[in-house]
Amino acid sequence: MCIQAKQTKRRQQVAAAAATAPKPSAAAAPPAATLPPPPPPPSAATPPPPPSAAATPPPQPQSAATPPSAAAATAAAAAAAAAAGSYLAPQQQQQQQQQQHQKQQQQKQQLQQQQHHQQQHQKQQQQEQQQQQQQQQQHDHDHQQQQQQQQQQQQQHHHHHHQQQQQQHHHHHQQQQQQQQHHHHHQQQQQQQQQQQQQQQEERT
Fold first, then answer.
1. Which of 65, 72, 104, 162 is most buried, by CB atoms within 10 Å?
2. pLDDT on residue 27
3. For bias kind Low complexity, which ranges apply (predicted)?
4. 0.70 exceeded by the pTM?
């Protein structure tokens, strides 16, 4: 009788715990219709059921504790997503700043390249101008040398021609002197002949 009283008290405690516990969801716990019916109270002749079967309560409290854990998991996931978004936002800003900095550097490099190209072009133009000036100077110098050579040739030609004229004039003067000498010599011969004739006439007389 004591054993039966203990079993009935335990059944009453299990039933009270099941009634006070929150109802599980349809997916987590089986419906009440599927639960096995409580065994009928044993008579005095039937032996009591084994204590192991009566001691195992149904797993109702564990199934009831699962919904709060799922809600906590979703809340934790939302918080993690929010934290990830707040962490990604500064990274995106840093990436944008880096991209802007790279664009500025590219623009500076392009400006430097353009300036360097302009400087090279100016240097080439200056070199070409210097070459043209040197060529003009050389051409002018050559032209001056040619003019000087022509003047020297003209002077030499004029001097040589003047000398030839002087020599010719001097030679002509010598010829005149020779002619005069010849004429004078002829006169002397005539005078001598006349003197001889006079002497001969005197001798005859």
1. 65
2. 44
3. 15-32, 62-84, 91-137, 145-155, 188-205
4. no
